[in-house]
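tool_call: predict_structure(chain=1)
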Amino acid sequence: MISAEEACQKPIFTVLSGPAASAIGGIKLGKVDNTLVVDIGGTTTDIALIKDGRVRISKEGAMVSGARLRVPSVDTMTVSLGGNTGIFASRNSVFLGRKAVKPICLAPDAYNVMKDRSYLYSSKYGDVGITPTDYFCAEADSGYGNQKIAQKALYALADEAGMKYEDPCESIRWQICSRLLRSMLSHIVGTEIQEDGEGEIAVMGNDIVRPSFSLEIPVVGIGAPTKYFFDIIRDRIDGKFTIPEHYDVGNAVGAVCSSVYYKKQISIKAEKDQNGTESNSLIYYLITDKGRMTFGTKEEAITYGQSYAQKVVEQYMYRNHVQKFSTRSNVEDVIFTIADEKVYTETKITAIAEVV
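tool_result:
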């Protein structure tokens, strides 16, 4: 959470604030500190891995539809999958699209829309079409929408694709399972698994092998349609699925429960002293908003770096109108071993401020 003034100065840092709130809402509602939060809405699914009650932070930025934002933010993954994701007819098949349409089972003029079959094909954003919401209404009796209309639309989809009614339903289920499971695993391992090709076979299998996965942490689901999406992937994952009370307003809960938190990290590095009298003499430097600061000893650099980082996090809290907060700092040497010899590379100073 940040103040309006801070958001105006650095609006780019508000990117994915919605998924961040969902992650916090999942922590609060699920009452867990280590979990995978999956927020499934109408248009997208947001996934966040939680460790020790906090969302991972990515220096390179979160992943959105396969692209890195390159701006420090919460490490979440946003996927084009939700209750309103369009499902369309294709040549002898059906496919799960990436844009949202209005579920036909909720359309007040559904029978007029269904007079022709244009709604069965990919069209402009916002038009009426078949969606997972319609599939759940027809097959799972979700109670959300007109079941007769949803079933009639799925029969029309099957007929248009030249398939039996059961075939497009099974295909829809398989594609939802594939996209959701692949996205969850991609976020956990930190590497995107492509939707087609070898990566997908590794996740979903083929006629010979059917993979399943074991999770050591629970999966907390929030968002209105989450229950029905989870029902599709439950038999693929050996783990605990939790859909807490008030799951349908998890994002709002996260926004209310958010607080101000800030972390500043500084690196101290060493280089050869060009003006030194000895061949192995070193100087230590770090970069601040004032530029490069150089010191004769590592201890001097650490003392200055800790003071500077502490000041930065304190100023951030004051700018965001926080009066009661605590700060802490940590100093860690980064050392590599090369040919049994320990080589110093840098010292990392981390200062953290959070509301008390």
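agent: Residues 261-355 form one domain. Proceeding to next step.
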